[in-house]
Amino acid sequence: MPHSNARLAVVEKPVAEPSPAAEVVVLKFGSSILQDQSCAPAVASEVYGHVRAGRKVIAVVSALGGHTDRLLADARALGLDHENDLLPGYVALGEEKAAALVAIACDRIGLDAAALSVRELGIVAEGPSEHAHPVSLRSDALWKSLADHQVVVVPGFGAVGQNGKVVLLGRGGSDLTAVFLAAELGLNRVRLVKDVDGLYDRDPASASGKPLRYRRASWDDARRHGGALVQHDAIDLGQQRSVEIEVAALGRADCTVVGDHSAPPGPSVPDAPLKVAIAGCGVVGGGLLQRLQKDSRFEVVGVLVRDPSKPRDVEAPAELFTADREALLALQPDILLEALSEGGAGHDLIRVALERGIDVASANKQAISRDPAGLADAARAHGSQLAYSAAVGGGAPMIETLRAAKAAGPVKGFEAVLNGTVNFMLTRLQAGADFADALADARVAGFAEEDPSSDLEGRDSAAKVRLLAFEAFGRTPAEADVPCAVLSEAFKPAGPVRQIGACVRDGEGLKASVSLDVGLDDPLFQSLDGERNALKVYGEDGRVWSCKGRGAGRWPTTESVLADLADIVRARHASLGHH
Q: So what's the pLDDT on residue 259?
């Protein structure tokens, strides 16, 4: 079946209305979270979880830990004291630097992110230059960035005074920035991410008595018990503008909600680290190992590899590695993260783990696409969870987008750029590179495997088409029923071209293909440079749902597995009755 037929069948219905406008959330990350630049990936992970749930994020950041004090010391060494109105402009550079770093960390995992300066953000404040109060928001830059990007990272603490100079919003002023932005956007809630999981009736670090955590706290409770945890000006503004304040920890769903009502505090039991096993230590498995070894919420108990003695590009204790599948499962992990390169072995391992009640997150499309319905049945039958967002689209949330479209009504079909390696090579070929150089460049960039035949022959994309079809239609076209165009040295692009995977309803059946779409005129697919992927889902009612992101590489795919891991942890908490 020529691809163009599948595509025409998808788009011939006129589009009645666009996708719904994305919900916007404001998150704030303080210096206790951003202790140094190595903490930026964890902040990007928190942001990614919201973006893949279909939200746009304004991330308000404080300066890196200790940075504000160092900037103050620099200025004082040159004789600038607290009364000098040049001082705030220098000090606010700490927040601007942190905003740029977090935006870079978001970009690394494939999020479409922008960073603004204090002046671009456009909060206008009045009062003393080091403890001013925000009064208005004048920012075309913020609105434009929010329209054009998934994530806008902005500096907290700084604003612009009536005289046009930068002023500060007092110690802890990033809290105030976040609450003010939420109020100006018409939101009824803002989330402040701290190094504790909520507001307690006493300092959790103190030794006197057992601290109790509030699930809901009134404004007065927050002023009484908040101490330095939440800036009091931010609490006052939240009350005045009816913006509830969530106080939460990184990676935790539960929090304290500060608002009009209070509930009695109760004991908060810290979670024991969850035991995680990793299968595979290549591009994705190695990324998971590197990230999880630094995360106190998890204990990596074992890593399944072909050769435990082989040198790795990730440092880890030698005793973690095993070539024995049974030995790995005998460690009784709570969760298995499966990132093997081979479909058959991955499928068998996933099935056995699910049948033993072990939750699984997989990045292995060849493994999952063999029998997604059977694996889902095995998970249900044994009370385990199965997630595989990373198996399709790398860091682009394709599974989530398709599920959102299906929840809104029947799906007519979809089309997508599904292979980061091929898209990277097509971009290079269009720029004039020859085939061998384009493939070599893809290998150096970490996108192409030593044996790239699955990518070039379209089989990788076909597996993803079959998985997306399962999500869209509840059934999977047979492997033989997905014809694939091959990218070879003989292919010479004459204009825009993309490898497009598509599947549409065709009467009672499904029509699927993977082809090289020459003369492509779709703006979304045309815009995909390098390893970027994108998906369009067409509803029967004419609505179109879309997403894009980096479709290959260690960090985008690792991030997608980590987001699945976070979803699994939240579901485990819910089943145990955590609040």
A: 96
- How many C-beta neighbours within 10 Å does residue 211 have? 17
Take residue 341 and report the two structure tokens written for it. Answer: 């390169």
Euclidean distance between CA atoms 273 and 355, whole angstroms: 23
What pLDDT sits at residue 187? 95
Please state whether the predicted TM-score (pTM) of the whole model is above 0.70.
yes
Weakest-pLDDT range from 132-146, 333-347, 440-454, 526-540: 440-454
Under 8 Å between Cβ of 538 and 472: no
What's the gap between Cα 220 and its chain centre?
Answer: 35
Residue 302 and residue 154: Cα distance in Å, rounded? 39
Task: Look up residue 19 and give its two tokens.
Answer: 């996708």
List CB contacts of 34: < 8 A, sequence separation 6 or more: 40, 43, 61, 62, 63, 64, 65, 98, 102
Long-range contacts, stretch 294-298, CB < 8 angstroms, 24+ apart: 295/42, 295/251, 297/251, 297/271, 297/273, 297/569, 298/273, 298/274
Report the percentage of the chain scoring pLDDT > 90: 71
H/E segment holding residue 354? helix 343-355
Give 414-435 as a DSSP string. Answer: EEEE--HHHHHHHHHHHTT--H
Residue ranges of alpha helices (H) inside 282-337 are 283-292, 325-330
143-155 confidence digits (pLDDT tens): 999 999 999 999 9
The predicted structure's pLDDT at residue 137: 96
- Token duo for residue 289: 């190992």
**Token match 């939420």: residue?**
182
Reduced to 3 states (helix: H, G, I; strand: E, B; else coil), residue 355 is helix
DSSP 224-288: HH-TTSS-HHHHHHHHHHT-EEEEEETT-S-EEEEES-----B--PPPPPEEEEEE--SHHHHHH
- Of 341, 284, 544, the C-alpha closest to 455 is 341
198 contacts 259 by C-beta, under 8 angstroms: no
Per DSSP, the residues of 445-503 read TT-S-SS-HHHHTTHHHHHHHHHHHHHHHSS---GGGS-B----TT----S-EEEEEEE
Query: Left if phi > 0, otherwise alpha if psi is -120 to 50, otherwise beta: which for 79?
Result: left
The whole-angstrom separation of Cα 412 and Cα 122 is 43
pLDDT range class, residue 208, cuts 50, 70, 90? low
Segment 101-148, tens digit of pLDDT: 999 999 999 888 999 999 999 999 999 999 999 999 998 889 999 999
Higher pLDDT, 122 or 15: 122
Q: How far apart are CA 528 and CA 534, in angstroms?
A: 8
Nearest CA to 47 out of 193, 258, 256, 229 is that of 193
Of 320, 316, 326, 380, the closest CA to residue 348 belongs to: 326
- Cα–Cα distance between 13 and 31 in angstroms, integer? 51
State the Cα angle at 267 between 265 and 270, rounded to 5°.
130
Name the nearest CA neighbour of 61 among 36, 96, 12, 13.
96
Query: d(Cα 328, Cα 320) in Å, to the nearest integer?
Result: 9
**Residue with the two structure tokens 């597995």:** 561
Judge whether residue 298 has pLDDT over 80. Answer: yes
Contact call for residues 281 and 314 (beta carbons, < 8 A): yes
